[in-house]
Records
---
Amino acid sequence: MRRCLAIAVALFTAALPAAAAVKQSAPDGFIVEHRLHIAATPAQAWATLAQPARWWPREHTWSGDPANLSLSLTLGGCFCERWPDGGAEHGHVILLRRNELVRLSAALGPLQDMAVTGVLSIAIAPKDDGSEAVVTYRVSGTPAHALDKLATVVDQVIGLQFGGWAALDGSAAEKRTAAKKRP
């Protein structure tokens, strides 16, 4: 168990920004939440969400290449990573409201090997000149998992992963706006 915890911490701590969105933490589980401003409509943000190969960080793939990632935004759809000699299911869609909410059953990264349960919810709503996305990750296990020791690191990783989505959609929206202003 200690070895799994050490591996999880090592994998999660590569190139992480500071974040402080741990909503709840205990040895048997945690909840982290990130609110992201996206300079795009909910439909545009949704379309970009379905392309994790464009925004998911390389360091947080099993294959080392985000081009191997896909996310099928359909009920039962797979958030998968496929490479020539293998692959991984990072999660699958358990609830879907197009352009508004997707919920995945997903024990991400080293949490998968710990046999814990993870639920990742991504809610998108119009706000101001774009959208607000709320990414909530709930993980539960047993007290023996000592999940409270991982909560802060997982929070940082979720911020890094989905911060890439928000930033990509913002830059894409800026390009669309600039193109519209050209004579």
---
Amino acid sequence: MIKKFLQEVGEYLLLMKRAFAKPDNFRMFIKQIPREIEKLGVDSIGIIVIISIFMGVIMTVQTVLNTENPLLPRYSTGLVLRDTFLLEFSSTIMSLLLAGKVGSNIASELGSMRVSEQIDAMEIMGVNSANYLILPKIIALVLFMPVLVTLCVGFGLIGGACVAQFSDLITMSDFIYGIQYAFIPFYYTYSVIKSLFFGFIIASVSSFYGYYAYGGALAVGRASTHAVVNSSVLVLLSNIVLTNIILT
């Protein structure tokens, strides 16, 4: 068990060393990044927006119904929703969702290329396949993560505002006041910093399992599963570490 773990860590580090080498064709490398941004980032906007809105609605309703205390001000609902999205949901929970969507996509794509021997063909032609295939994915996801964080926070608050607008649980004035009350701008910076690390973890770990998916079609499925599970675990572990480093 330990031997296998150390072997995978060593292979991962060697793969990242190859991936972050100087590109063989810088022009082709630059062209790859916008394509990966569209495939990994832009195509994920829809699911992030939908989940953020519904989570904003659910969290607002739950907060109002479970904090019916005359000692608590009415605006505390907006405050709780804002800080929850800024501190955890927009970075950590969103990254777990992306690990399932983007991580499995990357692992299955590279795994299919490995099984169909496309990666082997690149190596025969003298192309650094790790650099050509993996580095644009890592850069694209890391660059687009702050955009997804911003959208997640914004649409989560919109979901909460819909509850205030279309129900009697909380007034819109109390909700907006709670969003504005005691706002700490660094919380947004903190969320963006975490998302950059999470984006790197998701893209690199998923690429690692897809790149080494030897053994046929079943290996592609195993690679996708391992990519999602391990990147999710690493996101949660790094969340603990980053929180202790940044907020203490």
---
Amino acid sequence: MQIQNIQDLLRELREDNTSGANELIDKALEIIRFQLSLTDDPRKDIKEEMMILSKQIFDARSSMAPLINTIGFLIHNLELINKAIIEERLNQFLVDREKRKESLEVYFHAFLGEHKRVPLKVMLISYSSTIINLLLKNKEFNFEIYVLESRPLLEGQRVAETLSPHFKTHLIIDAAMGTSIDEIDLVLVGVDNILKDGSIINKIGTFPLALLANTRKIDVYAVCDSYKYNLKSHYERSILILEKSIKEVYNKEIKNKFLEVHNYYFDITPPEYISGIISDLGVLSIQKFLEKVKKSLPIEWFKYFIINKEI
């Protein structure tokens, strides 16, 4: 289908429930490029248009930290915003993103070098393209994978199908995580957001998995790009975890007025249940990660939206 305008692109970004962070960022960049294409003069000041568009992208994915930080990279420290500057920064962003990816790969490989068991038995939850790609780049460690199905959308099935041609893989229902926990050496979880206190937002079930692993003294590491640090949380704005369609978990007519059905995609895991974060900044404790990420991101730019009460 041909995209007609920016609103179509924003709607696609808002309604996408299956893509990972990088795919959603690419969609946001496509929206920005569309906006730039509407401007003929590369030196014309388009600050007002870009600020409005930035707010629209925020609203489309209000809790997605990488989108906020991506826009921050594009427009921070700019009194004048024009097409030429943004195009230059778009190109630089792609270069920097690749560098962050490469750094994460180096740190993840070094982390695995500290774990000598063969096979290394790892439990995963939900679909993280970052973790999947890292595992596939390190096949020599001969992993044995335990994948939770990840209700309600069952992304775990896709993970199992992707990894099973390369590693022995077990697909188990979420509620059965306790039956396999004593078999594993390590839990790896993806990250949707990292909050100011070091808590992580990830697919529903991450919190009980981390709790369970802690009872068995099994390390739980979050794996992510440092752009997952959430600036809304940094400035003490609330992060809402919205309910999704109940039809995904209860596809019947509700006839009993006392029956309430809830469907959450995400939960929050407190930092005390996370052993550390593996990112492009290193293999770090929660506290060390927070110290480094606050220096690496253009945090101050976000104050524009705070001051103008747009967030």
---
Amino acid sequence: MAEEHKEIDALTGTATTGHEWDGIHELNTPLPRWWLWLFYLTIVWAIGYWVVYPAWPLITSSTQGVFGWHSRAAVVTDLAELQAKRGPMMAKLAGASAAEIAGDPQLSDFARAVGRVAFADNCAPCHGSGGGGGRGYPNLNDDDWLWGGKLGAIENTIVHGARSTDDKGHMGNMPAFGRDGILKPNEMSAAADYVRSLSGLSTEPGADLTLGKKVFADNCAACHGPEGKGNREVGAPNLTDKIWLYGPDKQTIMQGIQNGRGGVMPAWGGRLTEPTIKALTVYVWTLGGGEK
């Protein structure tokens, strides 16, 4: 049938396939020889790859290949070589305190290099790649700390976490004053206005700051302090500065008063090695917000 429709295009001298659309004939242009040979070469290469490397899945395993090479084994070897190379310095990290590491230029440089990688792998999803934080996740570059910014405090927070499954971790939640019926809507609104005023933010016209101050003193001062300066023992933030974990707008503050707050940080003590935790501590401390 193909021969019956075979025509030669007058312009190019190439045979057509017999297909025609609105007077346009499809040319049966042969593939270039170099392309065909390259295609055949890829087939030969694929067959050779199947023979040389692990390729075909079996019922309980796979073909092993005549070279016996495995990508997983290569990764294990590379990690072992890296561990052997880092071994002496990691041993020094394990035998020194975070303060000693920070005070030793050589150890500090090594710790920050290791800590940077550990941070990217474990902490960046919440705190951001540069530690800048996000809504509900603290900025580690500033000097505002919920649980303390000294080396010992940072290390303790990393090891035990906050509101995690570790009994030694930081505890303390903000109650749901509205949901649990502790405060009335007008009291929550007044308290939100008063909290905004503590950091110099403007309040709504007619805001009852007198009522807000009383509500704050009766319900919030126990954690945030009578002046709203915060309390690191329970992770209560300082309400008088310009740094807000969830946002400074009244609606966001009202949501916190209504439903409470209490973010969770995992306890990394059982997940990361001791030298890695010390390196991570020094790295976080040197981001810019660490305290002396």
